[in-house]
Amino acid sequence: MKNSKIKRREFAKTVSVAGLGLTLQTSSFANPMKKIDKTVRFGVIGIGNRGTHLMKTLLSIEGVEIGGLCDIDKSQLDNAINICVEAGRKKPEGYYKNEQSYRQLLDREDIDAVLIATYWDSHAAIATYAMEQEKYPGIEVPAALSLKECWDLVDTSERTGVPCMMLENWSFRKDNLAVLNMIRDGLLGEMVHCHSAHSHDCVDHWFFDAKDGHQRWPAKYLINYNRDQYPTHGLGPVLSWMDINCGDSISQIYSSATASKGINAYMKRKFGDDHPNAKLKYKQGDIVTSTLKTQNGKTIIVNYDMQLPRPYDNRWMVQGTLGIYNEQRDAVYLTDKSPKYHEWEPFKLYEKEYLHSWWNKKNSSGGHGGVDSLELELFVKAVRDKTNTPIDVYDSVTMSAVVPLSGLSIEKNQPVEFPDFTRGKWKGRKPYFGV
Fold first, then answer.
1. Is 132 within the bounds of a domain?
2. Residues 186 and 312 occupy one common structural domain
């Protein structure tokens, strides 16, 4: 490495992470729209649809400069560079020669942070290298696909002192943050149980092309694996609702999967029985249900549901000793507070009353109703202030670990142990997200 060990120690000391027990300076996140006094220089690695969207969002944030872009598809790279130039920004350097070209970008001394929006199987390796080069990584979901990759992220972040954040945008939704405030204000009592899901029929646009049914890059995961491929959108808000890694910890996961019927049925219905992908055998079951148990006796249900016809839904539900919130109903029931005994009341009034401070000066423009810009504004502020990221490395890998662990549980047809990525620090850590 170009930087000395002394510089690394100074960097680790500057970042307020206390050995990555991550005692957060929460006040530094109180207002993401605070006046900017330092330009943060970003790189973006992976400039497909999602990477381009993240790059455009960065361009809309004051005090951010994009110094470099990387993608092995030069046409996508050139398009992204043109977007920056047309926005009136300095032309960023492009890197594209091979799958290791991202290292050239991350070796630069003038880059502070990087957004990683490549294919899933390269997320962890790029983020690990970024931390080695003292660059903050913001990783698209999931952050890792194996337990080894999860531990690599934790170990590297702890060793270098560089925070690491998975960009789980659903943690920053206005409704989910209002629920968090309600829970912390005691309205639902002591937390007992949560349900979450990623229910989104992605066969005809994400996994396969709608025009001719050819396989897109994520299709290989459905062919080769049977697991929850995409748990983080459901789990994102749940970790803070249930104080996971901050007073409690997931101890066990048990997963089961249905047969795989949906993809073949879609291919036959849309393209006929003779289409190659209609005949293919897919390992991935249509519905995966995972039950997570915690050290303190809570349970969390997570569903994967991405291959059968259905409208989009996350199906969040959180229950405590004094009440329940149900996202599908857009309703709550609170003991001694709801107007009628055992009858739902609308959530909207509570959402307004318990509006999170992050949304006080925030509108709903931008990607996913303003959620993406809020998330990146907070990430940029963490980089600028040299503080921990709004989602830390422990929560990032906890959400991601459901991918390999659900597959292992399905294969063994039994519960499996869930690693404690905090190495026991959860017992003394205080809640930090959105405080």
1. yes
2. yes
What pLDDT score was predicted for residue 35? Answer: 44
Does residue 139 sit in the same domain as residue 190? no
Cα distances (Å, whole numbers) of residue 425 to 23, 120, 163, 248, 429: 11, 28, 16, 10, 6
**Same domain assignment for residues 277 and 339:** yes
Q: Which of 40, 43, 15, 59 is nearest to 126 (CA)?
A: 43
In degrees, rounded to 5, the angle at the alpha carbon of residue 417 between the alpha carbons of residues 411 and 419 is 120
**pTM across the whole model:** 0.93
pLDDT in tens, 351-367: 999 999 999 877 667 78
List, as one string, the DSSP characters of 81-137.
Answer: HHHHHHTTPPPPEEE-SSTTTHHHHHT-TT--EEEE-S-GGGHHHHHHHHHHTT-EE
As a whole number, mean pLDDT of residues 11-35 equals: 42
Structural domain for 185, as ranges: 171-357+392-427
Type of residue found at 230: Y
Decide: 52 and 70 in contact? Cβ < 8 Å: no
As given in the structure block, the two tokens for residue 422 are 């905090």
7: alpha, beta or left? (left if phi > 0; alpha if psi -120 to 50)? alpha
Longest dimension (CA), the chain: 66
Q: CB burial class (10 A; 0-12, 13-18, 19+) of residue 249?
A: buried
pLDDT in tens, 143-177: 999 999 999 999 999 999 999 999 999 999 999 99
Choose the final residue of a domain: 121, 150, 170.
Answer: 170
pLDDT in tens, 118-130: 999 999 999 999 9
Task: Please count the structural domains in the chain.
Answer: 2
Q: How far apart are CA 339 and CA 327, in angstroms?
A: 19
Among 364, 396, 400, 384, CA closest to 138: 396
pLDDT in tens, 317-341: 999 999 999 999 999 999 999 999 9
Closest CA to 407 of 147, 137, 53, 37: 147
Q: Report how far residue 217's alpha carbon sits from residue 422's, in angstroms, rounded to the nearest whole number.
A: 33
Write out the H or E segment, with its range, that includes residue 143.
none
**pLDDT category of residue 38 using cuts at 50, 70 and 90:** confident
